[in-house]
UniProtKB/TrEMBL annotation:
Listed InterPro entries: AH/BAR_dom_sf
Annotated protein name in UniProt: Uncharacterized protein
Lineage, opening ranks: Eukaryota, Metazoa, Spiralia, Gnathifera, Rotifera
Protein species of origin: Adineta steineri
Top-rank lineage group of the source organism: Eukaryota
Length: 348
C-alpha cells in the first residue's frame, strides 16, 4: 500500500498550467510503464505455457523411445535406468511447474493489472477534461468581466452618470464579484482537490506497478527454489552411482535368470598345422603337434625355399650382366686402329 505520510511538497504546489502539462506527461508515462509490465507478464505466461507443452511432449517422445529401443530389447534395471526415469520425471515436473507459473501470471498479474491500467487511463482522461473545463469557465468569466468593463467605460465616457450607467455599473460589479468568487473557489478548493486526486492516482499506479513486479519476481523465485531443490536432490543421487556395482548386479541377474546346470560347458578346439607338402607321414598322423615338432618340420621346408630363391636370384643376375654387355656394345662400338706407323715405314 502507498505510504500516506505527508511530504514536504505535493501536487497542490504545482498548480501552474505549465506544471499541469508536466504532471499529465508524468501520469501518461507511468501508466505506459504499468502497461508494459502487464504485457511482460502476459508474454512470460505464454512462454511458460509453450515451454510446458514442449517439455511434456519431449518427455512423452523419449519415454516411447525408451520402451521401443531399450526396454523392448533388454530389460534394464539398476541405478542407470532409475536415473534415466528420474530425469524424465523431473522434466515432466518441470513442465507442470511451468504450466502453473503460466496460470498464476495470467490470473494474478496480467488480468488485474490490465484492468488497473484501463481504470487509471480513464481516470487520467477525466482529470484532464475537468481541468480543461475549469480553465474554460474561468477564461469565459474573465472575458465577460472584460466586456462589461469596456461597456461600462464607454457609457460613462459617452453619456456620463445616467441611469444606464448605473445599471451597467451594478452588472459590472456583480460580474466581478461572481468571477472573483469562482476564481477563489477554483484555486482554493476545486483545483487542489483535482491535484490531490491526481497525486493519489499516481501513488496507486506506482505502488501497484511495483507490487506486481515484486509478485512476478516472487513467483519466479518460488518456482526456481522449488525446482532447484528437486534438481539438487537428483544431482546428489546421481553422484552416488557406481559403474562397477552396476555391472556386477547385471551379471548376477543374468546368472540368476539362467539355469547353470543346463548350460553345456564350453570346449575350445585349437587349429592344427597342416603342411602342403607330404614330407613326413608320421607328423601328419599326429593331430596336435607340439612346438618342437613344428620347428623341426618347418626347417627343411624353409631351407628348400631359400635354396630355390637363391638359384633364381643368381640366374637373374647373369641375365642382367648379359643385357648390360649388349647395351654397352651398342652404345660404344669398337674403333679401328690408326695406320700412321705404316706410312712412316714406307718413307724410310
Amino acid at each position: 500500500m502507498a505510504n500516506s505520510t505527508r511530504r514536504h511538497v505535493s501536487y497542490v504546489d504545482l498548480s501552474h498550467p505549465q506544471e499541469w502539462t508536466k504532471l499529465l506527461e508524468y501520469a501518461e508515462v507511468t501508466i505506459a510503464l504499468t502497461k508494459l509490465v502487464a504485457d511482460f507478464s502476459n508474454q512470460w505466461a505464454k512462454i511458460c505455457s509453450l515451454a510446458s507443452s514442449q517439455l511434456h511432449q519431449l518427455v512423452n517422445d523419449f519415454r516411447k523411445k525408451t520402451e521401443n529401443e531399450i526396454r523392448a530389447k533388454c530389460h534394464l534395471n539398476g541405478m542407470m535406468y532409475d536415473l534415466w526415469e528420474s530425469l524424465l520425471l523431473e522434466t515432466d515436473i518441470e513442465s507442470q511447474s511451468l504450466k502453473k507459473v503460466s496460470c498464476i501470471m495470467e490470473k494474478n498479474i496480467y488480468g488485474p493489472l490490465s484492468s488497473f491500467v484501463t481504470n487509471k487511463s480513464l481516470q487520467l482522461t477525466i482529470n484532464r477534461e475537468h481541468r480543461r473545463d475549469l480553465d474554460k469557465i474561468t477564461e469565459k468569466g474573465h472575458e465577460m468581466v472584460k466586456e462589461l468593463k469596456e461597456e461600462y467605460s464607454k457609457i460613462y465616457n459617452t453619456h456620463g452618470a445616467t441611469s444606464d450607467f448605473d445599471l451597467i455599473h451594478n452588472e459590472y460589479f456583480l460580474e466581478i464579484v461572481g468571477v472573483n468568487g469562482l476564481y477563489s473557489k477554483y484555486n482554493q478548493k476545486i483545483l487542489p482537490q483535482l491535484l490531490q486526486g491526481m497525486e493519489q492516482s499516481q501513488l496507486e499506479i506506482i505502488d501497484g506497478t511495483c507490487q506486481n513486479m515484486q509478485l512476478i519476481a516472487s513467483i519466479l523465485q518460488e518456482f526456481h527454489e522449488r525446482r532447484h531443490s528437486s534438481y539438487a536432490s537428483f544431482v546428489v543421487t546421481s553422484s552416488s552411482a557406481n559403474p562397477n556395482e552396476e555391472i556386477e548386479n547385471y551379471i548376477c541377474s543374468v546368472n540368476e535368470s539362467n539355469d547353470r546346470s543346463a548350460t553345456p560347458p564350453v570346449h575350445i578346439q585349437f587349429e592344427s598345422f597342416v603342411s602342403p607338402i607330404n614330407h613326413n607321414s608320421r607328423l601328419h598322423s599326429i593331430s596336435s603337434p607340439n612346438n618342437d615338432q613344428l620347428i623341426i618340420y618347418a626347417a627343411p621346408v624353409i631351407q628348400m625355399q631359400l635354396s630355390s630363391r637363391c638359384k633364381e636370384t643368381i640366374e637373374r643376375l647373369r641375365e642382367i650382366k648379359k643385357e648390360k654387355s649388349l647395351l654397352l656394345a651398342v652404345i660404344n662400338p669398337p674403333t679401328p686402329k690408326p695406320l700412321v706407323k705404316h706410312s712412316d715405314d714406307q718413307q724410310q
